[in-house]
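If I may wish for something, please sit down with the protein I am sending here and say whether tokens and residues agree:
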Amino acid sequence: MGIPHRCRTHGVLWSLLIGGLCAFASIASAVGAELTRSEIEQRIAHANGNRLDLGNFDLSGLDLSGLRLAKADFFSSNLAGANLSGAELTDENFTRADLRHAKFSNAALRGGILYAALLEECDFSDADLSHARIIGGGPRVSFKNAKLVGADLGADPANQGMVPVPAELPEANFTGADLTGANLTHAILSSAKFEGAILTGARFDYAVTDGTILHAARRP
């Protein structure tokens, strides 16, 4: 049996998007200014509660754990391998950011935007992503025990043209996650794990779930 045309189309579009963003991230790493943790702490102090602009920087591999970075703008920044565990990142912007292998365990990302972000093997375990907008992609992302109440991982046909682009998260781990009221419409969730997850009111309309493990997931 062949792959449905819709799935092939999503796959082609996402491959082109990922390829372009990876190339962009490589260029940003070569020409972007690097900041140390100390320099970022100084920027936080100078921002005095206003939105912090950290866009287009190479911050790969930095230890930013526990920092208060609420409303920070990381547009197109390279945070591959960075450690943001326990960081305060409410209402942050990670649009087009490279978050591959980054650690966000126990971080607060409520209401954040992760649009077209690279998420391969990113760790969001025990993080709070309530009402976040996640239209990123990559295999083996961990949302283990994460809070995704009201999170939006679904396609947005009204704003994405003829072929809407959803979150593409093959082999993602949602074990024990709280997805109450979450939108996963059209999401690519092949071979994902949802053991013990709370799925009350969650929407999976047209989601690709072949090989997905929903055993013991908690539904209403």
